[in-house]
Amino acid sequence: MSDLTRQSAATLAGAIARKEVSSEEVTRAHLDRISQVDERIHAFLYVDPERSIARAREVDQQLAKGELSSPLAGVPIALKDLLATKGVPTTCGSRILEGWRPPYNATIVDKLNAAGIVLLGKTNMDEFAMGSSTEHSGYGPTHNPWDLDRIPGGSGGGSAAALASFESPLAIGTDTGGSIRQPAAVTGTVGVKPTYGGVSRYGIVALASSLDQGGPCARDVMDTALLHSVIAGHDPRDSTSINGPVPDFVAAALKADVRGLKLGVIKELQGEGFQAGVIERFHQSLEVLTELGAEIIEVSCPHFEYALGAYYLILPSEASSNLARFDGMRFGIREDDGKDRSVEQVMSATREKGFGPEVKRRIMLGTYALSSGYYDAYYGQAQRIRTLIIRDFSAAFSKVDVLVSPTAPTTAFKIGEKLDDPLAMYLNDIATIPVNLAGNCAMSLPIGLAPEDGLPVGLQIIAPPMADQLLYQVGSALESALADRWGGLLISEAPSL
Amino acid sequence: MTTEYNAVITEFDPIIGIETHIELGTNSKMFCSCSTQFGGDPNTHVCPVCLGMPGSMPVVNRVAVESTIRMGLALNCSIAPWCRFARKNYFYPDMPKNYQISQYDEPLCTNGYLDVTVAAENGPQVFRVEIERVHMEEDTGKLLHAGGAGRIHGATHSLVDYNRAGIPLIEVVTKPILGTGDLAPEVAKAYVSELRDLMRALGVSDVRMEEGSLRSDVNVSLSRPGEEWGTRTETKNVNSLRSVERAVRTEMLRQADQLRAGVRIIQETRHFNEETGDTTSGRSKEAAEDYRYFPEPDLVPVAPSIEWIEELRGTLPEVPSIRRARLQQDWGVSEFDMQSLVNAGALEFIVASIDAGVQPTAARKWWTGELARVANERNCELKELTVTPNDIAQIEGLISAGDLTDKMARSVFEGLLEGEGTVTEIVSQRGLVVVNDDASLIAAITAALGDSPDVAEKIQAGKIAAAGSIVGAVMKATKGQADAALVRTLLLEQLGVKE
Question: Counting one residue from A and one from B, how many pairs have CB atoms under 8 Å apart?
């Protein structure tokens, strides 16, 4: 097999299953690639080649004995550093957790292990998943493989960049307001935010518990479906996870058919603030989808204009509470000069030193929004907007099967460009945030390069809660139609580095 | 009652309110599967969840919800068809997450009542204590201050034991209790006592007060008749029934002093000193701490079905006060005797003994007599003694069959308390057999009469009371194993004397 790092996960898994190549060889190829290019990309915060190779050998042995039948067995994966991994450093992109090795695995990690998927390492991210560019990492930014001066999206920029730079065929991300989808859009990769509760949150360090959702990332729709199948399902350790049957994502991806489906275009998500090239590619995709037999209908979601405001009250509120535990008492760094300090002094010095500016900003916002006398005006009001957005979606889904929009208003911006303007940064998630507020599922997939800058553009498909299979059915239809036109996937155009 | 106290009552009306935290007796913690066993080595009953490790998530203990609902039903509360947990945010090192999962504006149980009886001048008086709410929450860890006097002040460092973190608690909050007058301290005590008995009767907690598993915060305010309610103080963590009573009384006296001197009462928390009975100022609540409550997003709402609630209602036991009144009547004992056997912790043992076939009088005799005496001597509780209601039943069976005398029964108890084995084993090991063989008794009587010939003459002369010394001698000769009544009969027969 030619360059192992250029293959899809499905192809690699097939070859490994047929003993044409070993998991060890595949893993080594990716580790080699990481050592060649990651100095320039900085997708990874932690790689332990020996551990990965040992694990790949173990998987090879299990496969030889016929003990593994998972469709992705032996394929390596990159994991966002927000997921707890037993004995493996987990920083959440924050200095405050430097040196912490959790004594337990996130449920997603347990499921990946059980499926024989080999962990390559932990990927970079905005600190505690707060950001849209990965510039807010406590360990330095990640670079977009399409243009090293540009951001790879965020917060899961490390996972998306690892895919786009062919350092890993699969990745896990988490999406609180777009952290899987927006990085996928700006790196020409595929990412899915599952229905809230569709994948266990146990062991995903919480940013905003009512919005967070772990999900699959890959370079094509089928790989994403395969990975989604591995990590989905009810978890008794997460009482907010859905206790019901998991749809067949792979069958839906194979179906790849939009004939007779009604696709809603959200009126509010295509006007002001959207880059011309993004809109152009979006409209071309709609033409393709029409040619494939879908019916395009414009729908209005009038309350989406309040989504960003509601999101930036709910998220900081929950985050201010979730992040209270980082106090230097039990894990991570402790800022203690050995002088006779009180516990309050040590806690506050630890948080002052360990947290970056964006984290502090949001903790302060949230603390304020929850404080007595302001709760109703801020948190309470934001929850009411959330209800209105859910109603907007319900009304839309009574008319159409899925909704579509551009994933992000722009292509990848330059590193440093929006760092001093938090509001401009927040606006990047304008199209993705409503989905988290409502708990729906959504996918981003590449639909071409913007003519003005030659950078990838993503299309977002949104489906009703617990109808994630529709994302795969529509996504794979569009993906294969576009691949036919281009003579291959968009990602093959990515710089070879 | 002191003159000073009487003076306070004439001038002021007290209003009290009590918040009580009780540890539930579940096997596992509120939100994880760690053990709730008391007294393990520090930080051995912990896991990522109760340590608040990043990424870990709570899952509600169904038994704790069930216990809370049963408690709510027993307190005549409405059970919410849908309610949520909330986060109470504040930084403290004994709280792993720096927030406590509790319930805020959506408690599981609301609007109930509990009737309590206190002794008043003109007989028992019943007060209805209205219950505001019953809700669930998790306990915190425990700080151990080292290098000082065990207090934070003067300590060189502090250690945290998280074994207690996450133990399920229920909090029962009363509405303001009005109209108690001079009985306020007694009503407070009777309420906590009744609450404790109810928890035990429900089997939702064994309420080990000595381990601090029931803690009350006592609110007290005074106002002059007709005036607005006074400012209240909250005396925290009052851990015994006696202390509840004392804390109310102390605060009434202290506040009255202040008010008379024209000093404003500050809304604050106060600490109760068990040794002196005084309360001292804690932190002021004027600048109330802002706990930034919001619904716990890591947990789904609790929505008990009507079927489940009704099923639980069917499991409620008799209300302890009603049950006590019934037993008191059945046994024909005085209010005073009933109260003292309850206080001695003997009630359930007596009931169990009766259930095992013992006559009520005998059951009370053993548990409040011999066994209570030993418990008192050993400074322990009845339940710590190695004697069971079944043992009592067995011993009483032997006594009524004529196989044991009362004295021998005491010896069996001695053996049981020393852990010598079962009743049967002890009877045989200690050779406790009633001598019923007339011939050997007659021989012993003859021998005793031979030793004191003058006694026989006295008896025959009509001084039957003198028979006691011969019976005593025979009992001594038979090592107490003869039936004394039988010895007496045989002796009189032998001397030809009729009673």
Answer: 100
Distance in angstroms (rounded) separating the CA atoms of residues B85 and B104: 7
Q: How many CB atoms lie within 10 A of CB B289?
A: 11
The two three-digit tokens of residue A57, written as one number = 């050998």
Residues of A113-149 as b/e, b for ≥16 C-beta within 10 angstroms?
A: bebbbbbbbbbbbbbbbbbbbbbbbbbebbbbbbbee
Q: Among B236, B278, B288, which Cα is nearest to B257's?
A: B278
d(CA B79, CA B77): 6
- A44 CA: distance to closest CA in chain B (Å): 20
Interface membership of B290 toward A (CB under 8 Å):
yes
Query: Which residues of B fall within a CB distance of 8 Å from A320?
Result: 89, 292
Listed residue (B21, B164, B31) closest to B95, CA to CA: B164
Q: Across the interface, do B55 and A106 touch by the CB < 8 Å criterion?
A: yes
| B479-496: average pLDDT | 81
Q: Is the pLDDT of residue A98 over 90?
A: yes
Nearest-angstrom CA–CA distance, B499 and B496? 10
d(CA B301, CA A211): 16
The answer to whether the bond into A209 is cis (omega within 30° of 0) is no
ipTM score of complex: 0.95
Contact between B297 and A90 using a beta-carbon 8 Å cutoff? no
- Of A90, A208, A239, Cβ closest to residue B59: A239
Q: What is the pLDDT of residues B153-193, one digit of tens each?
A: 777 888 999 999 999 999 999 999 999 999 999 999 999 99
What is the residue whose two structure tokens read 């039903």?
B73
Do residues A216 and A231 make contact, with C-beta atoms less than 8 angstroms apart?
Answer: yes
Chain B, 458-477: which have a CB under 8 Å from a chain A CB?
none
Chain B residues touching residue A331 (CB < 8 angstroms)? 53-54
Q: Which residues of A are catalytic?
A: 80, 155, 179
Give the phi and the psi of residue A385 in degrees, each rounded to 5: -65, -40
Name the amino acid, one letter, at A10: A
What is the Cα–Cα distance from B52 to A494, expressed in whole angstroms? Answer: 42
- State whether B52 and A330 contact (CB < 8 Å): yes
Q: How far apart are CA B366 and CA B359, in angstroms?
A: 11
User: Is there a contact between A74 and A118 (Cβ–Cβ < 8 Å)?
Assistant: yes
CA–centroid distance for B4 within its chain: 31
Q: How far is A495 from chain B (nearest CA, A)?
A: 36
Gap between the Cα atoms of A435 and B441, Å rounded: 99
Q: Which neighbouring-strand residues pair with A204? A: A83
Question: What's the pTM value of the predicted model, to 2 decimals?
Answer: 0.87
B84 touches chain A (CB under 8 A): no
CB B497 within 8 A of CB B459: yes
Helix axes A469-486, A221-231, angle to 10 degrees: 160
